[in-house]
Amino acid sequence: MSKESSRHGDTTTSTYIDPGADTKEGYAISKKSRTLAREMVGNATVEDRVKQRCSVAVGDFAMADLMRFHNNPIKAALDALRNKTPIITDIRMVQVGIQKKGHQSEVICALDYGSDIAREREITRSSAGFLALKEKIPGSVVVIGNAPSALLSLCAMVSEGIRPAVIIGAPVGFVNAAESKALLRTVDIPSISTEGTRGGTPVAVAAINECITIFIEGASDAGSGHRL
Predict the structure, then answer these.
(1) What's the predicted TM-score (pTM) here?
(2) What count of Cα atoms within 13 Å lies in the side-chain half-sphere of residue 221?
(3) Going from the N-terminus, what domains does the chain have, and what CATH number goes with each?
(4) CA torsion, points 110, 113, 114, 115, in degrees to nearest 10?
(5) Fewest CB atoms less than 10 Å from the CB: which of 128, 171, 175, 223?
(6) How far apart are alpha carbons 167 and 87 in whole angstroms?
């Protein structure tokens, strides 16, 4: 098994939870989708778990083959959640989509910060937001599902020594999306990304929400000593 893959006790068995499913029907739909995804994607590692959920999120199992995991990002995400560090998103859709139950990390959006920087430098609001959040980024979980410009700015910040715990980078589109994710995979930070132009909010949200689900499972297993 490569160093990029991890097993974790009960997280890859047939047991299934969905903290976001609040009704019996919602849970049944979620469980059926995951059963299909397990069959199509595989279920040997926690990385498979993320691939499953991202595939379900976009309705295409081809997404599983586009997922990239660098420097053991799921462990890094779980450690950050245990430390209650902030989750920082590029846009509000990503912020709204992230599961809020089962963890104590504040979920904030870069668009709420740096409007003055955006005007002064004539850069995107999401990029400016990350620049304004410079002091909050170290140790945080960064989730980017839309803005390649934000991911490029974040990679530049990493090169200057600012180190988030993990970056989920899945911007979508034909302008700088593929390039920003390729750059992300060259920096020495744990990351989850997608290959090429595909990605988007559903993929980014699915990736972090699966990490949160695994975190919740781990919390329930704490007495038995299970850790990723």
Answers:
(1) 0.86
(2) 15
(3) 67-224 (3.40.50.10230)
(4) 110
(5) 223
(6) 10
CA distances 13 to 17, 151, 202, 218, Å, are 11, 34, 24, 13
Q: Give the span between the Cα atoms of 109 and 114, in whole angstroms.
A: 11
Among 181, 161, 163, 162, which Cα is nearest to 173's? 181
Task: Name residues whose C-beta falls within 8 Å of residue 61's C-beta, 6 or more positions apart in sequence.
Answer: 37, 40, 41, 55
Helix axes 148-159, 125-132, angle to 10 degrees: 30
137: amino acid identity, one letter: I
For 37-82, the pLDDT digits (tens) are 888 898 999 999 999 999 999 999 999 999 999 999 999 999 999 9
Cα–Cα distances in angstroms (integers) from residue 220 to residues 17, 109, 217, in the given order: 12, 29, 5
Q: Which residues, in sequence order, are CB contacts of 88 under 8 Å at separation 6+?
A: 108, 109, 110, 130, 133, 136, 137, 140, 141, 142, 143, 164
